[in-house]
Amino acid sequence: MNERSRRNRIDRVTTRGGDAGETSLADGRRYSKHHPRIELVGALDEATSFIGLLAEETDSPTAARLRTLQSRLFDLGALAATGRTGADWSELAKDVERDTTALNERLEPLREFVLPGGGRAAATAHVARTVVRRAERAWWRAAADAGELADTDGGVFLNRLADYLFVWARTLARNEVLWEPLDDPGGPD
Question: What is the mean pLDDT of residues 74-80?
Fold first, then answer.
């Protein structure tokens, strides 16, 4: 066991430091709780939690892959909190894209948009996907003011992760219900 794993990373949960609407990040600075960087950290936390829920609904190999992706989301959160990363987000995004392509090759092509559902596991994957999309939007809002975020491919990784979760939702679906659009009200009668 290395020194890092032996020390307590979180020894207190209630600090009262955020009671006035500000909080600290690992870069040592205080931010308002509505700051784009704090929104990003929160959105990544939500995404990680929903992927954890999805992992509980899937088999062991899939759950193991989802746990790895949760760790990568924690790495993105660390990047958002510190402005530093040792990860090659471009390569990580390519890995997720390869997984997505392999899964998608086993599915029938879509004729229309899919309504989220298809069973509990598939519906959970759709929720995880939408929460990752929110994290992606938060990433780009925060990156607009933080060059160290914009200079990584963290947003690309989130985009690929949402695609992956969409394909997992389709893979897990017991049945897919497609969107049935209304007729165009301005079209011919």
Answer: 93
